[in-house]
Amino acid sequence: MLYLATDSLDANYYFALEEYLMTQKELKEDLFMIWQTEFTVMLGNYQNAYVELNLPELEKNKVMITRRNTGGGTIFTDRGGWQFSFITPRPQSDKRHEAINFERFMQSIIQALQSLKIPAEMNSRNDLTIHGKKISGNAQCFKGDSILHHGSLLFETDLTAMANYLNPAKHKLISKGIKSVKDRTTNIKNNCPEDWTALSFKEALIKQIVGDQPNSFYLSEADELAVQKLKKEKFESWEWVFGRNPAFSLVNESVFPGGLLKLHCKVEKGVIQSLLFEGDFFSTHDLRDFEHSVKGISFNKKTMQDHFNDNYPQDLIHNISNQQIIDTLFKDL
Question: What residue stretches are annotated with the BPL/LPL catalytic domain (predicted)?
Answer without folding.
Answer: 26-209
